[in-house]
Write a structure and sequence with these properties.
It is globular, with a radius of gyration of 21 Å. Helix 2 (about 40-50) crosses helix 7 (about 235-240). Among the domains are: about 5-60 and about 155-240, Probable tRNA modification gtpase trme, domain 1 (Gyrase A, domain 2), CATH 3.30.1360; about 295-375 and about 380-383, Elongation Factor Tu (Ef-tu), domain 3 (Beta Barrel). Helices cover about 20% and strands about 30% of the residues. The strands form 4 sheets. A 6-stranded mixed sheet has the order 11-12-13-10-4-14. A 6-stranded antiparallel barrel has the order 15-18-17-16-19-20. It has about 375 residues and is of the alpha+beta class. The longest helix is centred in the middle third of the chain and has 12 residues, at about 210-225.
Length: about 375
């Protein structure tokens, strides 16, 4: 959590509603955000796993992008030069995960993009991380001078968990047929709400863009459903960590590449060596080399079964006490009951981990940690 001057914090549109429900607020990415409510982080986390949590993520940036000449070819060419994406065969109203990279292959931000096609017109809806929203807009405008890139002035909420579909479909049945990474404009209490079946918790659910005039009423209606409870950024963080999802600014940043961060899937085959559109995006030389040769370090999942919480920035050491990595995110998993971590570790130390166990440095203790496949808790997307 960042801690800027409290007087400089911005408030999200539904701040009053969260205060009414007993939110504990904290500073995050320049915003005053609900971190947890009266029930507490663990209860909110487990309720989301069992029923449905409603998260306010209005601090995220929502962008609408189109070509100044309204030609889909212009939109596609400009974005393919700015991002490692390929619009060839990208179906209407589907969402994909992508990355805003620098010339060294570092991750300036991770993004969600929806491709919308209406006859001879095309548009992209994009969601960017709160802490990077202004920098992302500047960089995209610099790289894409032929595009019109504008903020969408709306609230954004994430309804997540196994009861999410029934709760949202009660307001508009069109929510139910959507599958993971599909989008639709739903009609909620008479308001048109752009919605994707996605979210960053590992659970099934939706992210819903709410017009400001109707946002309060829609959220209150959702909360009338006993299966739906408000949940804060604290629970969202523990849920995404259990799902093995990296957080920009913690697990990935401008100094880390997609290959070493387990995000190579975001580089389409067509943009890789030998592909029809190979390279041609910022950082391509570094990334294509790492795809071919491997990266010197990797972001991996670690677990410990010792009763010692292991947090971000804890060093990871080999048996000879040589530092071989660092924890980037860590918590005691509310679902599993033991410590789980994402950590960036030297490739050689991971190769040796079966015969040379790794340990974390927590003050004067050295709890053992074991590499484990991600996610820690299975994802439950509706595909």
């Amino acid at each position: 959590m960042s801690e800027p001057d409290q007087g400089a914090l911005r408030r999200i549109p539904l701040h009053a509603l969260h205060a009414e429900h007993g939110a504990k607020f904290g500073a995050f990415a320049g915003y005053e955000m609900p971190i947890q409510y009266r029930a507490g982080l663990k209860a909110e986390h487990l309720h989301t796993r069992e029923r449905a949590g409603l998260f306010d993520v209005s601090h995220m940036g929502q962008l609408r992008i189109r070509a100044a000449d309204d030609r889909p070819a212009t939109l596609h060419a400009q974005l393919e030069a700015a991002l490692p994406v390929d619009f060839e065969g990208w179906p209407h109203a589907t969402q994909r995960y992508s990355l805003l990279l620098n010339e060294r292959g570092g991750i300036e931000d991770d993004l969600m993009l929806v491709h919308l096609v209406d006859g001879a017109r095309a548009e992209v809806r994009m969601v960017v991380n709160a802490g990077n929203r202004d920098a992302d807009l500047r960089l995209l405008r610099e790289r894409c001078p032929k595009l019109v890139i504008e903020w969408v002035d709306a609230a954004l909420v994430a309804l997540q968990g196994p009861a999410a579909e029934a709760a949202l479909a009660a307001l508009d049945p069109a929510a139910a047929p959507l599958r993971f990474m599909q989008s639709a404009t739903l009609r909620l209490l008479g308001a048109e709400c752009f919605t994707t079946r996605s979210g960053y918790t590992g659970e099934d659910g939706y992210e819903i863009s709410l017009p400001l005039a109707q946002a309060d009423a829609i959220v209150r209606r959702l909360l009338e459903n006993p299966a739906v409870q408000l949940a804060g950024l604290g629970a969202r963080d523990t849920l995404r960590l259990e799902a093995g999802l990296p957080l920009h600014g913690s697990d990935i940043d401008a100094s880390t590449t997609p290959v070493e961060s387990g995000l190579a899937f975001a580089i389409p085959r067509s943009r890789r060596a030998g592909g029809a559109k190979a390279g041609g995006f910022p950082g391509a030389a570094t990334i294509l080399a790492q795809l071919a040769e491997g990266a010197p370090r990797r972001l991996v999942g670690l677990v410990s079964h010792e009763p010692v919480p292991i947090r971000a920035h804890a060093a990871i050491v080999a048996p000879d006490d040589r530092v071989v990595g660092e924890v980037t995110s860590g918590t005691v998993s509310p679902t599993l009951g033991h410590p789980v971590m994402l950590a960036r570790v030297e490739r050689g130390a991971l190769d040796d981990a079966t015969r040379a166990p790794l340990r974390a440095v927590v003050r004067d203790r050295r709890p053992g940690v074991m590499p484990t496949p991600l996610p820690f808790v299975p994802k439950r997307y509706k595909r």
